[in-house]
Amino acid sequence: MKKAWAVLLTIVVGSCAKQERQQSQADSATASTTVALTATTTKKTQLELPHAMGTALDQFAPSFEPFSPAEYSRDVVPDSASWLTNTPYQAKGDFNGDGLPDLALNGHDSTRELLIVLLSQPDSTYRVYPLKNIGRQPTYNHDVTLPLSAAPPGYELSAPPPHPERLPHGGIVVNYPPPTSAVFYWNGSSFVQFFGGD
After folding, report:
1. Prediction pTM value
2. How do the domains of the chain map onto residue ranges?
3. What pLDDT, on the 0 to 100 scale, is given for residue 177?
4. What is the three-class DSSP state of 133?
5. In degrees rounded to 5, what are phi and psi of residue 38?
6. pLDDT at 59
7. Which runs of E-coded beta strand occur in 59-190?
8. I need a surface site. Which of 26, 58, 93, 149 has the fewest CB within 10 A?
């Protein structure tokens, strides 16, 4: 009988030790995730732009920075994985149909919040088109809640004239809280905004 109790006690103690090890490993994994997220959210967003895009941006707003993870709402950027996957501060596409890449960016300089498009020109340079230009909001009173995404060519607007039914070259989608979004598209001379549902 004593031997049976000894075996049972060994099993119970061993099981408790195993659970403690598993909990410790889980805590370590959680701590690693938290550290990685903290490191990501405190870091500035670095832009790597082609030379022609960089030149246009420097001429328009030399101190421009995209919004960082720390400036976005947790509804948009809940963790580091979502930030790296979605890059909500930018939308890439060919917005004017010339076969060259264009880029929309959401960020700020020292005095303004800026939603801009770096659009390719016929001479292979780029020009900045501001879609939003407002005074810089205080960080203690502001979370960025509007992620950007690209609308592909053929994107359906379901819009009345004079808007096209479908976008010939794609566009930029600014995602407001559902069910509203705004789509900016190039009409040949300027960007036009259309508000619609998702």
Report:
1. 0.74
2. 45-135+145-197
3. 73
4. strand
5. -60, -45
6. 96
7. 65-66, 90-93, 102-108, 112-120, 126-135, 148-151, 171-175, 180-186
8. 26
181-190 in b/e form (b: 16+ CB < 10 A) is: bbbbbbeeee
| pLDDT computed for residue 149 by the predictor | 93
Residue 153 buriedness (CB in 10 A; 0-12 / 13-18 / 19+): middle
Question: Rounded to an integer, what distance in angstroms lies between the CA atom of residue 30 and that of residue 170?
Answer: 40
Adjacency order of strands within the sheet including 148-151:
148-151, 171-175, 180-186, 191-197
Separation of alpha carbons 115 and 187, rounded Å: 18
Determine the pLDDT at residue 29.
35
Cα distance between residue 47 and residue 173, in whole Å: 20
pLDDT-derived band at 128, boundaries 50, 70, 90 = very high
Which DSSP letter does residue 32 get? H
